[in-house]
Amino acid sequence: MKFLRRPIKRPDRGFFSKALHYLLLLLLPVLVYIAVSLDFAWIAVVLVLISKWRIFSVKSRHWLALFRANAVDIFVGLSIISLMSIPVASVSSRIFWVVMYAVWLLLIKPRSGSVWIGIQALLGQTLAIIAIFIQWTGASTLWLMFAVWGVAYLSARHFLSAFDEQMSRATAYTWAFFAGATVWITSHRLIMYGGYIAMPAIFLSLLGYGIAAIYYLDHTDRLKDTLRWQFIGLMTVGVLFLIFVSKWSIPTQG
Asked: Same structural domain for residues 104 and 117?
């Protein structure tokens, strides 16, 4: 009588490698929280930067392109550290940002669809501009303008990478110029909402989300004239609301 040989089930190496990958991703927000809680925010910054070591694992001629591709992820990580480090941050608010960072690393960042890439770019830009004004509120207008210019340019390039846009560089430069000009105008009477959210961050986020939605719908041939004017109307109302309800008597430093 012959015995039937049953195949021996071996552990799925792919499963274990994915589990280890997710574990390491979850470990980063936890280490960031510990470092910030111990008043070693600089260690948290180093951890975020070290997590992008793959940028330098290839030949140097690819470093710039890889940095541009990873810039939004770096923006989010450093911005969350900045938001966790503000003096008024409570334990619950820090835990909230740790959870948001984990959601970013596990759910948002790995996505590659055009909608998700747009969400990544807009979140990175919004958080980075908020962080810039938290860390350098008293900096000169020129420095703030160039910092926001760089964030807007890299965020726009990330957004346009999802589309077959022939003028992606020129479009990104145009948006970055507009963002820098906005900072130059508004920083003369800098207004902070809630104590740490600067008006340029809200203004550029409002327009950025609206313009990105119009661009996406137009690129996918789903933009109707009525829908376009609805977005333009909402952006106009939002901008006018910010202008008229803000207290313009608050001066900035620098």
From this structure: no
